[in-house]
Specification:
Length: about 350
């Protein structure tokens, strides 16, 4: 047993010894939350149950689900930066049907800032893949599924762009053709990654180790999303003819449509409208109307949005129905979380 494995085993034992205390604190926190609501401390909150209970998944299921998403993101940036997908050593596994990431190519970056951001994010996403894979033994390691990152008119990127109105029927969208197209491709993924990790947190609460790790990855994904959104916003303001800000709004509307119409819960960051583009808004401060950006997509309580794993699958499969494959995963994802929600 390595030092790392011994440390994890020791920490897991400590977590198990705290189970009885956790049960007490969970009850206490629930009572406190109820008292806060009654006292008006959460006046902006609308607490109603979701119409369909989310299935219960194990911590292993959630980690495997996250690994599927990291394979998707890491390969996109790997192609953009290096011209190739992830190496065999980073995608092999004994669980699930192994597949390749296909169709990507290097971006001929013109803006050195965008290029450096892409290189940084690539390294971060590769680190996420390797970290998640390191949590499993060789016999329990999830293989990368087939991933469509191509540029054909019938491919996932073109389908998403067509639904957003960015390209006409039969026309391909190539996310590798320019800095701006690359940023829009990244925009499609990054916001979803933030909401996915936040939505997965309840399934990891019994393991404080994994919960903290997931929170760490969520924070990095949020940094990435902010980078992509900020650069798109700047470019959109500088060159309005590119219609970049309008494009982000259109992509967000597609994601909103795909992930259904969940009942609003403003404390948890759940709602029928859980996405927003970069369109400039206004605020009134001391009688003066000011334009404001929308870099951080938040609800009225200033809380980031959550999506269940099934809602995330709706988006990456590009389908509102309960299906097991499609979009960026033409043969589906690997692991036990593989069917999207029936949100149509």
């Amino acid at each position: 047993m390595t030092d790392s494995e011994q440390l994890i085993e020791t920490l897991d034992a400590r977590v198990r010894r705290r189970d009885s205390r956790r049960a007490f604190f969970t009850g206490a926190l629930g009572a406190a939350a109820a008292a806060a609501t009654l006292s008006g401390a959460a006046q902006a909150q609308t607490v109603t149950p979701t119409p369909t209970p989310t299935p219960t998944f194990t911590e292993v299921d959630v980690l495997n689900f996250a690994l599927n998403l990291e394979y998707l993101e890491a390969n996109y940036y790997a192609f953009a930066v290096t011209g190739s997908g992830l190496a065999a050593a980073d995608i092999s596994g004994a669980i699930g049907t192994a597949g390749a990431a296909t169709g990507g190519r290097a971006v001929g970056f013109k803006d050195p800032i965008v290029q450096q951001y892409a290189q940084e994010i690539y390294q971060d996403e590769l680190a996420h893949v390797r970290f998640l894979r390191a949590q499993f033994t060789t016999s329990s390691l999830l293989a990368q599924p087939a991933i469509d990152l191509g540029t054909s008119a019938s491919g996932a990127f073109s389908t998403a762009a067509r639904r957003a109105g960015l390209v006409a029927d039969g026309v391909a969208f190539d996310p590798y053709a320019s800095d701006e197209n690359f940023l829009l491709g990244a925009y499609l993924f990054e916001d979803v990654g933030v909401t996915a990790y936040k939505g997965a947190a309840p399934a990891l609460i019994n393991s404080k180790i994994y919960l903290e790790a997931a929170a760490g990855i969520l924070a990095v994904e949020a940094y990435h999303a902010a980078i992509i959104r900020s650069v798109l916003y700047r470019k959109g303001l500088q060159t309005p003819s590119l219609q970049l800000i309008e494009a982000t709004t259109a992509i967000s509307r597609v994601r909103d449509t795909l992930d259904g119409n969940p009942t609003e819960n403003l404390v948890r960051g759940i709602g029928p409208i859980d996405d927003s583009g970069l369109a400039t808004g206004t605020i009134v401060d001391n009688g003066v109307t000011l334009d404001v950006s929308n870099i951080a997509p938040l609800n009225s309580n200033g809380i980031a949005f959550s999506r269940t794993p099934l809602q995330v699958l709706n988006i990456v499969y590009l389908n509102q129905a309960a299906v097991t494959s499609g979009g960026f995963f033409p043969a589906g994802v690997n692991g036990n979380i593989k069917t999207s929600a029936a949100s149509a």
